Amino acid sequence: MNLRCASGRFWQKCENAFLQQHAILWAALSRTGNVLVMVNVSLFFLTGQVTDGGYRFPVYSLGLLAIATLMILLPLGWHDRLWYYLVILCVQAGSGWLLGASVVYWLNHSIAN
User: Fold this and answer.
1) Domain map of the chain by residue range?
2) What is the model's pTM?
């Protein structure tokens, strides 16, 4: 029972901290998404690696970023909820992971050739 009480208090403290700083956190998350889009496009789409090299992870990464951006922009009324922020953060983290995996794949195949 003590563990449940402690986890409830921890979650409440996290929600309170999020409510105090949610304007800063949402702006940072939005800017991070914009940077990921620019890096993705400049590394893979402008160089032609997606069409010539057959890379698919950058396309999936941009798809996840589009979903995250739509979730940020849609007025659902959940922007003051911590769980909603964490969901979007996880979607953007997945997009960043796909971008990192495609960079590693690109480096491995460019060194091998």
Assistant:
1) 23-112
2) 0.85
